[in-house]
Structure formats: C-alpha cells, structure tokens
Amino acid sequence: MSDSALILLGAGGHAKVLADLINACGERILGVCDPQLAQSGASHWRELAILGDDRAVFGFEPNQVQLVNGLGGPGRNAVMQQFAAKGYRFATLVHPRAVIGSGVELGEGVQIMAGAIVQADTAIGAHCIINTGAQIDHDGRLGRDVHLAPSAVLAGDVTLGDGVFVGPGAVIGRGVTVGDRAVIGAGTTVLKSLPAKARALGNGRPV
Questions:
Q1: Helix boundaries (H) for the chain
Q2: Which of 14, 95, 127, 138 is catalytic?
Q3: Is residue 2 scored above 70 in pLDDT?
Q4: Which of 23, 47, 110, 167 is deepest in the core (most CB within 10 A)?
C-alpha cells in the first residue's frame, strides 16, 4: 500500500471503483483532479474535495503524495508519463478481497480490484489494471499497462506484452504468449500465441 496521501486523477466510472478500493484499504485521499469538474465550479465529487484540474497536482511536492490514475481509457498513458517525468509516483493498490499468492511481484501503479485472484510467482508490470474478478494462474508474466477486464482468465504460464487489453470474460489458455498492444475481445478464448497488435475476436469460437 501507499505510504503517503493519495490524489485521484479523473472522475469517471473507473475512478469510482478506485475510490471504493482506496477506502476499503483504509488509505487517505486528499482529493480528486478532473478538468471537467474543475471547470464546472463544483467543490466536491462523491464526498471528495475537487482540487482542480491536473495542474493542481503540482501544488504538492512529489514526496508528499502518490497519484492514482482513475482514467480507464484513452489518455491514461499520457497522464502517467506527464507526472512520472516530474518525479511523481503512482500508488500500487490491492483490494483486501483480492487473493494474492506467494512470490507475486507488483509494479508501480498496479491496481487490483475486488475478487481478483493472482496466483503464485506471477509478475505484473507497472500500471496494470487487474479488474473485478479477473484471474491469473501461476507464473503469469504481464508487461506494462496491461488491462484485464472483469472476469478475464489467464491460465498458467501466460505471457502478455505491454499494453495488452483482455476483454470481459475472455480466457487465455496455458502457455500462450500475446504480443504488445494486442486486443482480446470480450468472451474470446485464445489457445495459441498471438503477435503484437493482433485483434482476437472469437465470436464464440476458440482463436
């Protein structure tokens, strides 16, 4: 968990889930930064103080706070790079109702939601999202910025490159490797390795 107060970036659906996760972990949230909320003149969002747009972060020294990226879609990586370049760090958060096996390694900014299961000797790279109820069996290897959507399942010894998206309910078979920035559609079953930037949309049939 984090060792300093947190600032939540964004106020969409993913940020709502993260706010609940942070509260479940007993962490302290200083407030939320969101350009649209700041422009609206609102003072609070879901009982959290609105600090301003993203520039409000710069009112705090990097050693005073950790950031939580509440963006779940386009623009997520740009936000991370903007603040990382100035020395800010992102909190690694694990919901207390997630299951984390022995020997698991978590990179900076990883977010693991309620009901997720990460089994033994899995390594998860920086800024990955392991969403609600997703499962990773033993010896998984995930690069940076991977997103496992709710109820996605990785069998043992699966390797995912940087920026891979695995849709809700998708299943990736044992020993499969998926290249950087590939997209696995919702409900797709992947039984063979895929190259970088592949798009696998199984439509009920194994890929």
A1: 13-24, 35-40, 76-84
A2: 138
A3: no
A4: 110
